[in-house]
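A protein record pairs a chain with a discrete description of its three-dimensional fold. The following entry can be read in just this way:
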Amino acid sequence: MHHGSPLIQSKAPPASWCAGPNGVASAIGAGKGYVDVSTVDAQTAQAVATAVRARGAAYLEAPVSGSKGPAEQGQLIFLTAGACRLARAHVRSALAAAA
């Protein structure tokens, strides 16, 4: 099975992109944050969150709801859950610009 996104093309499962030995979480640390805008199953989201938090970083789950039409109209919705301080301090304006 091929897993991919516009940014990542891989035959590896999505959790390995972040939580694997050479994943994003291996280079993240305290005082940093990880915003996950992927749309994955709950088990994958939990594995990523656990890996990020184990490194002392904040995790914010923010999958996107919407398709090409709403994206072109600036009508995407981000469904956020997790580190509220990360969302308020650093992410709200970036997600608003992407929506």
Remarks:
- Strands lie at 3-4, 9-10, 33-36, 58-61, 64-65, 77-78, 81-82.
- The first strand starts at residue 3 and ends at 4.
